[in-house]
Structure formats: C-alpha cells, structure tokens
Amino acid sequence: MSDNGIDVGLIKPILEEFRDQKGAVIPILQxxxxxxxxxxxxxxxxxxxxxxxxxxxxxxVATFYSQFxxxxxxxxxxxxxxxxxxxxxxxxxxxxxxxxxxxxxxGGSDQEFExxxxxxxxxxxxxxxxxxxxxxxxxxxxxxxxxxENIKEVEK
Length: 156
Hints:
By secondary structure, the protein is α+β, with helices and mostly antiparallel strands. The protein is built from seven helices and five strands; from the N terminus they run H-H-H-H-E-H-H-E-E-E-E-H.
C-alpha cells in the first residue's frame, strides 16, 4: 500500500502479463487505469520501478493519448461535443445545464466523484447535433433538459 492509499501490489499481475512484450506501455497503462479508474502517480512509479520503463516514457504516453487520465474521475462520465455543428446547435447550453444541475465544471468532477464533465470535439455525427454521451451512451439532438434527465436516469 502506498502513502496515498493505493494498493500498488495490484500492478504486479499486469506487469507479469506483459513481461515478455516489448512496447507494451499502452496496454500496461490501459489495464492500470481500468484497475484504479485513472493513473495514480504511485502506480506510475511502481510500473517504472518494476518494468524498467522510464517514468518520462510512461508520462509521455499517458499525456499524449486522451484515453488516459492522471486525475480521478467520476463514476459517470458525461461528454458534450463542442465541435462546430454541436456548438452552433447549443452545446454550450448543454454544458451550462450539466454544470449547474450537478455542481461541477467542464473538465472536472464533482466533490463526491459521481460525475465528470468533459468537452470533446467532433464525435463524427454532426447530423445529430448537439450530441452528448453519458457513460458511452449517445444522446443526439438533445436539449439541456433532456440531457439532465438522461443523466439522472443513469443513476437509477
């Protein structure tokens, strides 16, 4: 157990799985993030120590790919597209409604880590603008009120 309450011993089986695979940084980080919900600093240090992959290489990969998170995230991930079509069709109103209803800011999480709100750019479905995703479920042609209701439904 690390000083920050992270059980870094859980990383050992991940590293064993990829022991003989050169260039397995991405799957190691993916499995680690799946385990903790993000990539804690202590976990990154443990990966580096046990695998011989430099800490700078780990952070280089983790910060290059948007799939990786270095901060804890909420249990529910809300993504609002703010590409051109979505922006013009009301994405900023969606963001404001979610921020107000769930007491969080875009790019962050609420204090209980129930929700994380992310702004994403172009999900490739401009005909459905504005689009939001809640835990990966797509909601197209959505309004601020319907998005808030859809998020509340996920809780049930």
